[in-house]
Amino acid sequence: MQLVVHYHEIALKGKNRDMFVKRLIANLRKAFQDIGRIAVRSLFGRIVFRVDCEDLEEIDRRMSGVFGVANYSAVREIEQNFDAIAQAAWEVCRESGAKTFVVRCSRPDKSFPMRSLDVEREVGAYVLKCASAERYPLRVSLKEAEMTVRIEIVNRMALVSGAKRLGPGGLPVGTGGRLVGMLSSGFDSPVACWNMMKRGAEVVMCHFHSYPFTNRASLDNCIRIAEILTRYQFRSRLYLVGFAPVQEELLSLTPADMRMILYRRSMVRIAEKIARRVGAEALVTGESLGQVASQTLTNLAVIDDACHLPMLRPLIGADKEEIMTKARQIGTYETSSLPYEDCCSLMLSQHPVTRAELDSVLRIEHALKLEELEERVIGEAEVLQLSWHGNGECARKTLQEPNYGEADNYVNLGSCACSLD
Ligand code: ATP
Ligand code: MG
Hints:
Rossmann fold; 2 domains; 9-stranded mixed sheet; 421 residues; binds adenosine-5'-triphosphate; 38% helix
């Protein structure tokens, strides 16, 4: 099938345009990589694209993962000849089964002798004539047509297309820099990472877990979520960081009601170190104002203090219902619903502080050996590379083998488990 893909012009001003279009074409190729021959050309602000697939539903599914596609439609590419154009327009109308239609023409290639308005009027008349000859009930409706036949006169050829199908919008992944996404296996953080991918960022994902002190559920859920998100950026790197050594150290001195904030600050420092290694320029989290105690403005500021990179929180103003609806749309809802033991809930008070004081936090941290441990857990993390294969499958490659140690080594984690308020 031959398709014409439109992208939003707005992002394309100036020098970035070529980079944007090249990336969009590369991403289209990745989304359709397993479908056979793909031919792609960029023509006057649109992309013409031929794939060995006639199944529009399958094409829809794949297009929904290519950010930057505003809309697309099946297209006929024909010579720049009025009779050929008019005949193609009639065929598009007849095949659609519509009862009302309108013709719209754009003519970036000014070498074609007719003006756009004349093409619209004369092609419309031709279509009506053919319809009446075949006793097909069809009329023109300028305002509420069921079918818009689009004619684009480009580069010494003409493109004739029918119904527009909506793409996901946004900007092509790879045009917006790189981020480290802090990914739990809850509902929020996958949606936050997806939001940033939609703005063109590539997200390196980072998950903290307490294995072997807990079971592997949060790791396995997270790997699955990362695979689902890889559909939108085609290749992902996932850091699975064993957080138990840091928790073990924090537990030696920290009051239970401050642990959440200390865990978060440590996670953010580790994520920042990973960001520096992979060339990422900011962190992204799924925090939403007031959702839990660690997400008050006071506590968010104390968390921010631990990081020198921008902390992006695309969901800060969203409520849970909106986030769940989005999670359903992007495909992470079911995996996020699965049970897991969260490393953050380990050894936490039922009543964490809602207004942490930075001075007390810094005093506690100063008395601990966190810096060294935070460096160590990155070296011991499991690092995976996930590659999207187009057909729903993801290939997994281990870039770094984990070294998580034995559960028995965690004396504080073991003994604190039953001593909470
Ligand atoms: P989510 O917010 O993803 O639904 P959650 O509600 O269990 O998970 P919160 O307590 O809301 O987690 O955590 C706030 C944010 O901190 C998360 O959105 C995520 O970005 C980050 N975060 C929390 N736990 C982890 C973890 N185990 N690994 C990586 N990041 C985490
Ligand atoms: Mg949350």
